[in-house]
Design goal:
Enolase-like, domain 1; 3 domains; FAD/NAD(P)-binding domain; 31% helix; alpha/beta; single chain; 12 helices; 479 residues
């Protein structure tokens, strides 16, 4: 007689941040968990996303500071030679392998859930779903669970541009493995990945051209686009806005030729390499979701309720695969919330109202809450102030006043509903903004709170003071 498929409380497909958060929480509840990963344990963040990209950004910033310090700080003379890209990538690889081992592989062993290598797909009936796992050796296993979590993440997506499929272009994933710095690079895109990658390679020594369909960071405040455009211009990055790419091809010199419609006419752009950073799409191919009644959207994302339940009540989704905001901390929050709802009937909902958003350019772009436009569209009669960094003492002593801090407030109540900053450590300002918005604080309250002098966070207080005060007349040490 054939053996019955093993039964688990929770079967997790994927092994990234959302998958691990769910497995940890479920294991702590005493549930029997199995995790299936078809590729490298750890998912996008630790392997090809946050960790390696930010490690390389930090290295590129270090080089840029060395090149820039002579002009910024009197009495300082520094220099920087060419980049040994192979050594830089090897250092990144070592960091990634260490974190993958310590925070993923070893952690799974510590918690004791079943970690399996293979490709999973759904079988069975919608009311009784099961998983079939195809191992790397060609063998197959089956299992069932009370609940299933799909946390398979997303992958770089390329637009349907003629000839692009046949071109050897870079993505944010493959660029992390280059063994030399491209002499020149065209980056397609204007979102956070495109911005980070463009500045990264420019600071490593590439001559970079960025082609964006709209303005930079088009989902954020227009002041952010203008500030970053100025920063990029200062650093020699050519930004071409409202560029609609019509074709790409390999040049006679082995490089790439991109043709785009700009300002009503066709223009050609040439470089040694092309990077496509036009967004990501959910990874759901091969899961056989239709077979078990799980509905997906136009780009393959799993459609979920705000409880993270799919159209099949026993199958849940978390992280990028839902098509929601693509941050690892969103995926992790999803994973924990899903377990609480599945096993504790918590009925918790995902709430993105005060979700912080960070683009790790330098200076960084960060925001929390509503933009000016979003507040108006929500029917809020808003009042805004934009504080240039020249009024923030920390920026003055850093000798870098490129950027701003913007506060969006409800004009009727004074309650702050949004904060955006382009500044050094802007992510920390967004983190502070989360607490301000969550507490429902007003402009007047923030303007009169304690704030340590010569911190960038002091800029939030000064921005709040600017609603009622001419900040140009404040003493720098007595704000």
């Amino acid at each position: 007689m054939p053996q019955a498929a093993p039964h688990f409380d929770l079967a997790v497909i994927g092994s990234g941040g959302g998958a691990f958060a769910a497995a940890i929480r479920a294991t702590n509840l005493g549930k029997r968990v199995v995790m299936i990963e078809r590729s490298t344990v750890g998912g996008t963040c630790v392997n090809t996303g946050c960790v390696p990209s930010k490690a390389l950004l930090a290295a590129a910033e270090s080089r840029h500071v060395a090149l820039d310090a002579t002009g910024r700080f009197p009495g300082i003379s520094t220099s920087a030679g060419p980049v040994d890209m192979a050594a830089l990538i090897e250092g990144k690889r070592s960091l990634v392998e260490g974190m993958r081992s310590d925070k993923y592989v070893d952690l799974a062993a510590d918690y004791g859930w079943d970690l399996r290598e293979g490709t999973a797909s759904f079988t069975g009936l919608p009311e009784e779903p099961a998983l079939e796992i195809t191992r790397s050796d060609g063998g197959r296993d089956s299992l069932t669970a009370a609940h299933y979590l799909v946390a398979t993440g997303s992958a770089p997506w390329a637009p349907p541009v003629p000839e692009l499929d046949g071109l050897d272009y870079l993505t944010s994933t493959t660029a992390m493995e280059l063994d030399e710095v491209p002499e020149s690079l065209i980056v397609l895109g204007g979102g956070y990945v495109a911005l980070e990658q463009a500045q990264l390679f420019a600071r490593l020594g590439s001559k970079v051209t960025l082609l964006a369909r709209s303005r930079l960071a088009s989902q954020e405040e227009p002041e952010a686009s203008r500030a970053l455009s100025g920063v990029f211009a200062d650093e020699g990055i050519r930004v071409v806005r409202r560029a609609a790419v019509s074709s790409v091809q390999t040049g006679l010199d082995g490089g790439v030729v991109v043709t785009a419609r700009v300002a009503g006419g066709q223009q050609e752009f040439r470089a040694g390499k092309l990077m496509v950073a036009t967004g990501r799409r959910a990874v759901t191919d091969g899961l056989n979701l239709d077979h078990v009644g799980v509905k997906t959207g136009d780009t393959g994302e799993i459609l979920v309720e705000n409880t993270l339940a799919s159209s099949n009540p026993r199958i849940w989704a978390a992280g990028d695969v839902t098509g929601h905001r693509e941050f690892v901390y969103v995926a992790s929050a999803h994973g924990t919330l899903m377990v609480e709802n599945a096993f504790n009937n918590a009925g918790r909902h995902v709430d993105y109202r005060h979700l912080p958003r960070v683009t790790f350019t330098s200076p960084a772009l960060a925001a929390v809450g509503m933009t000016d436009r979003q507040a108006n569209e929500a029917g809020i009669r808003c009042e805004c102030r934009v504080l240039p960094l020249e009024y923030v003492p920390r920026a003055l002593v850093n000798r870098d006043t490129r950027g701003f801090i913007k506060i969006v407030a409800d004009a009727d109540t004074g309650r702050i509903v949004g904060i955006t900053a382009v500044a050094k450590d802007a992510g920390d300002l967004a983190a502070a903004g989360v607490y301000i918005l969550e507490a429902g604080m007003t402009v007047d309250q923030v303007a009169n709170l304690w704030s340590p002098y010569l911190t960038m966070a002091e800029g939030i207080k000064i921005a709040a003071q600017s609603f009622t005060t001419d900040v140009s007349k404040l003493s720098c040490c007595a704000s």
